Amino acid sequence: MSEPAATERGTIGSPADAAAAAASPTGSPGAAGEAARRVRRHDPVPLAAAIGITVAGGLILAAMNGSYLGLTVTTGVGYAVVTVGMVLQLGYAKQLAFSQSVFMGVGAYGVGVLETKYGFNSLESLLAVIALAAVASLLIGAVVTRAPGLALALATLLLPLFIYQLATYSSYLGSFSGIDGVLPFWSGPDYESTLVRTGLISVLLLGLAAGLVLRVMRSGVGLQLMAMAEDERLGESLGVSLRQRRLEVFVVGSVLAAVGGAVLASAQGLVTPDVLSESAQITLLLMLFVAGRKSVAGAIIGAIVIEYLTTSTSFISTNLGIIEGIVLLVVLLVEPDGVAGAVDRLLGRRTDRWAASLRSWSAGRFRAGGGGNGARNAA
Amino acid sequence: MSSGAAALEVENVSVSYGKFVAVESVTFSVGAGECVAVIGPNGHGKSSMVTAVAGLVRRGGTVRVFGQTLPAGSSRAAVQAGLVLVPERRHLYPALTTRDNIMLGSYSRTRRLRARQAWDDVAGVIDMFPELARLLDQKAGTLSGGQQQMVALARAMAAQPKILLLDEPCLGLAEAVARRVYDWLGSMTATDMTILLVEENPAHAVLVADRVVRMYKGLVERPEGSAA
Amino acid sequence: MPGTQPDDVPAGGPGTSGPATGTVPVVLACYDVTKSYGGVVAVDSVSLEVPRRGLFGLCGFNGAGKSTLFNLLAGSVRADSGSVRIDGRDATGWSAMRRARSGVARTWQTVRLAHGRTAVDNVAAACLRDPGQWMLGSLWKPQAAPARERAWAALESLGVGDLGGRLVDGMTLEAQRLTELARALVSEPTVLLADEPASGLSAAQRTVLAEALTAISKDRAVVVVEHDLDMLTSISEHMWAMVEGRLAYSGDVETFRSSPVYAGLRGIERA
Amino acid sequence: MSQFLNLLAAGLTSGAIYGIFGACLAVWFRVCNVLNLAVGDFAMLGAIGTARLVQTDHLPFAAGIVVDLAAIGLIAWIFDRLVLHFALDRGAGAHGIVSVFFYTFGLSLILEGAAKAIFGTDVYAAPAIWSGPALAIADFHVQRAGVLVIALAIVSGLALWAYLRFTVSGRAASACGESVLGSRIVGIDSGLFRRRIFIVTAVLAALFGIVESPLTGFTYLSGPTISLIGVVAAGFAAFRRPGRAVVAGLAIGVAEAMLGGYVSTTYNDVLLYAALFGIIILRPEVLGLSAEPA
User: Nearest chain B Cα to A18, which residue?
Assistant: First the structure.
C-alpha cells in the first residue's frame, strides 16, 4: 500500500518543505523522522520536574531563612499552585473559566474555618479542603461545563462578583476582616523556622501540582485535550468525551486553586476576602499570561516574580494597574506565548509562527467567515 | 480577443510571509479585454500572487491598472481602479442577506446613505444571475456552495469592475455548477472585461482563457501564448 | 432536474437503498432520516445501508445534503426523525463520541488538525486503547507512548511515515489530508466517512489519494463524498446520489453513468 | 404602588446604564469580534475627568465636557493605533479567543491605574446637567439625571439599531465582523470602521458617565463592575444586537431594583448576579450564541 505514495513523495513535500526545514531546527525531515520514531516508553519529565521544583524551591527557601523575602516567595508559591492548574485549564485545554479566585477562596477560607472553628490540624484541614474543593467543583462543574465556551466565560466572570459579596456579608467568614489565626503547615520553635518549614511543604505541594499537570498534559488524555481544544467537534469524532474531559479539567483547575489558597492562608496566617475578589482573578490571569499560558515553568516563575514585584517595590505596587496593563499588552502583541515562548524561540525550539500563515495561504483556507467569530485576515 | 493596451501590468511582484517567500518575482501583463489563466500546482504562490495584486497582502514590486500605479497593500485603491477580486472560498458575509452581500459590492463607489437606495443602484446585477432572484432575503450563510459562488460573482459585478480577478472559482463545486460558472465566465470574455483567472485545473482554464501563465515555486515558469 | 423521481431508485432492500448486500453484513445504516434547518429540508427521509467492506461514492450538488447526511451518520447532528443503526444496534440516540468509539470515523471538507503539534501527535489523539480513561488514571497509565507507536505505523501505511515528526502547520495540503486520513484509520474503524477528501488537490495528488482510499477499503467500508465524478466513479463499487435532500440514485457505477442524475451533475443535456 | 413605581424608576436608571454599555459593546463586537471590557472605564474617565476639569480647573461645564470627551476620543484612537491595529490588521500577537478578551482587559487595567495615579481614590461626580430637585408626581419621585439617562439610552440605542439596520455604512460595519477579507475585497476599510466605532462608543460611554455621575458618583474602580454587567447585557443580545442589549440592560436594572426593594437590600446584588449566573448556565441558548453551525 505504501508503494504508490512512495513514488509521489516529491509532490507531498513541495514548497512548504523549504519553510518547514528553514524554520525547524531539527534539520532534514528524513533524519528527524527517524529520530522521532523512537517513541520513548517512559516519560521522565513530570517526575523530574516535581523533584526538581521541590528540591530547588526548598533550598532557596531554606537559604532565605524566614526573611520577609521568604514570606513573599512562599506566597508566590501559593499563587503558582493556582497558575499551574490554570496552565492545564486555560492554556492547554482552552477552557475559558475565570473561577480560580473563587476556588482559591474555598481553599483559604476552608482551612481558616476548619482550623479556627473546628480544631482541625493543618494536615487534616488541607485534606478536607481538597475533598471539599473536589466535591464543590464536581457539583458546580457538572452544571457549568455544559455551557458553550463564551457562556462559560460569562458565567464564571460573574461568579467572583457575588461570592466576594457573600463573603464580606457573612459574619461566619469574618466579614471584611476575614479570619485570623490560620495555622502554618508545619510549625517550628520560632517564627523564622515556622516560615521555612511551611515554605518547604508549600514547595512540595507545588512540585506535586506541576508533576500532575505535566503528567496529564503529556499523557494520552493530554492528546485528547489537545484535539478538543483545537476543535470540539473534531474531538468528539475521535471518541473524546467532551463532557467528561471538560469536567475533569474544571475539577483539576479548581482543586489546585484551592490548594494554592490553602498555601496562601497558611503562609500568611490569615484569610481576607481579597483572595475572592476580581482583582485576585486579574492578578492570576496576568501571572499566567505574562510568563506563558502554556508553560508550567513559565507559570511558576511568573507567579513568584509578579508576587515579588507587587509586594516589594513601592514604585510598582503604587502604579500596579498601569504596569500590569502595559506588560500584558506588550506580551500579547510581541510574544503571545509569554516569556516562556520567547525563551523557546531564543533556544530555537519553536518554529517560526509565520509557518502557520503560510500554511493557511497555500492551503487556501483562511477562515471562511462561518459565524464571524475570530474571522480575521491571515496575513 | 484583442490584446491592445495592457489593462493590468504586474512587475516583479513578490510576497513573503516571514522568512518564507511565497512569490519570488512575478512579471506579466494582461491586455485589455483579454482573459489570462494562471495555472500550476497548489502551494506554488498563485493565490498569494493574486491576493497581492488585489492589495490584500503586503507585496513588493509594481502593479499598474490601465497605466496607473496602485499603492501596495490598499485593496480600496485597487477596487476604485476597477480591479475586483473574487476570492477563493468566496468570503461572503454569512449573517447578512444575499441582497446585502451583493449591495456591498458597490461599497467603494456608492454615495448612498440608505441601504435600500444603494440596492436599487445595483439591482440590475441580478439579471446576470437569475437563480439568485428568489434568494435575496435569505441569509448568505444558509445558501448552498453553488449559490454562494454566484453571490460572490454578483458581489464582484456590483463593483462594476474593469478587471476581474478570480481565485479558484470552482473549488468544491459540483461539476454542473462549475460548468455554470464557466459558462458565465465565457459570456464575460465576450465583453470587454479583462479577466485574470487562477485555476489549478488546466482543463478548466483552457475553456475560457486566451492565454495561460504557469506558476511554479513562486515564479512564473514559462509565459506561453496558446490560443484557446 | 429532469427524470429524478424517487421511482428511479433501485432499492437494495425494502425501503432502503444499498448495494445488493447478499451475505455481507451491514455495518452502518440509516432509515428515513430527515433533518431540516429553519424550514429548509437538508436531508429528506433518506435510507441507505453500508456493507462491511468496499468503497462507496456519494455525490450530488452543493447543498444537496451530503455533508448533513454525514453529520447525521457520525452523530454530530441529530436527526429530526428516522433511525441510525451501527452494527445492527440502534444508534439513533448515540452521541458522536459513542459512534466514533463504535467504529465510525470521519474526515471533514476543511482540514481540522491541532496547530503547533506534530502529525504523529495529531494522529495519536485518535487511538487511545481506553479513550474514556479518567484523568486520574492517566497519571499511572499515560497511554501516550503506545498511541504514538500506532500513529507512526498508520502514517507509514499511507506512505508518509517521514511526516510524523513534523509540525502540521508547515505541511502542504496533501500532507495534511493524508495526516487526517491516518488519524481516521488509526482507530481501526469499521466505516470511514470521507467528506471531499480530494478537495483542493491536484490531479496527481488525487491519484495518490484514490489509491490510498481503494487500498483501505479492502478491509472496511469507505464512503466518499466527492465532486470529481471521474475519480469517484473509477474507484467506487456502488454509487449514491443526492438531489435536494433526497436519495435520487442508488446502484452500480455503470448504471449510474447512464442515469439522468449523472447527466444532471455533469451538466450534460439529455437527448 | 408608589414603591413599585419608584423602584421601577431607579431600576430603569441603572438599567439604562447597563443597557447602553451593552449596546456599545455589542456594536463594536459586531465590527471586530472583540469585547470592549474597558467601556466602564471610559465612563469612569468621563465622569471623573469632567468633575476634575470643572471643579478643580474651573473650566465652564460645557467646555469641561468637550475637553474631556475629546481626550477620551484621543485615548481610544491611540489605543487602536498602537495595539488593535497591529493585533487585528497586521496579524501580530495573540489570536482567537485571547484577542476577544485580553487586549481591552489590558486597556482597562491601564485606565484604572492612570485614573488612580492622576485623580486618586476619591469619589467624584460631575455637575448635574439638568439640576433641580427630583421630579415628583404624587408619591412617585424620579431624579432628573435619571430621566436624562433613560432618555439618552433609548435615543442612542435606537440610533445604533437604526444605523445597523438601514444604512450602507452599518451593513459595511457588520460585514467587517463577518469576514475581514470579504470586506476588504469590496473596498471596506475594516480597520477604519473598527477605529471609528471604538471611538464613538468610548465617547458615548463617557457621556453616560458624565450624565449619570450626579446620581452615584464614580471612583477609579467603578469601571469593571459596570463593564461586566454591560458584557452580560450584550451577552443576552448575542453580543451583536445593540437594540436588544439596551432592553436586556433595562431588564437587569429593574430586576436589581426590585430585588433590593422587595427581597433584601443587603443581598440584592448577590441575588442578581446569582440569577444571571443561573440563567447563563442553565439556559445558554437565551444568549443566542450556540447557533447550529451551517
Answer: B20
∠ at Cα B187 (B182, B189), nearest 5°?
Answer: 95
Q: Is A379 on the interface with B (CB under 8 A)?
A: yes
Domain B1-82+162-170+189-228 sits in CATH 3.40.50.300:
yes
Check CB contact of B94 with chain A, cutoff 8 Å.
Answer: yes
Long-range contacts of A372-375 (CB under 8 A, 24+ apart): A372/B93, A372/B94, A372/B95, A372/D33, A372/D177, A372/D178, A372/D179, A373/D33, A374/D33, A374/D95, A374/D96, A374/D97, A374/D99, A374/D100, A375/D33, A375/D177, A375/D178, A375/D179, A375/D180
CATH number for the domain including C246?
Answer: 3.40.50.300
Provide the residue ranges of all domains of chain B, joining segments of one domain with +: 1-82+162-170+189-228, 90-160
Least Cα separation, residue B165 to chain C (angstroms): 19
Question: D290 to chain C nearest CA, in Å?
Answer: 14
- Non-local (6+) Cβ contacts of C31 within 8 A are C15, C16, C47, C82, C83, C84, C85
* Domain co-membership, C72 together with C84: yes
Report yes or no on C14 lying in a domain. no
User: In this structure, is residue C19 part of a structural domain?
Assistant: no
Q: Find the domain containing C121 and state its range.
A: 113-188
Provide the residue ranges of all domains of chain A, joining segments of one domain with +. Answer: 45-283
- With respect to residue C108, please indicate whether it lies within any of the assigned structural domains: no
Question: Chain D contact for C63, CB < 8 A?
Answer: no
Residues C194 and C238 in one domain: yes
Tens-digit pLDDT string for chain D (294 aa): 688 888 999 899 999 999 999 999 999 999 999 999 999 999 999 999 999 999 999 999 999 999 999 999 999 999 999 999 998 887 777 777 778 888 999 999 999 999 999 999 899 998 888 888 888 877 778 888 889 999 999 999 999 999 999 999 999 999 999 999 999 999 999 999 999 999 999 999 999 999 999 988 999 988 988 898 899 899 888 888 999 999 999 999 999 999 988 888 878 888 888 888 888 888 777 776 644 332
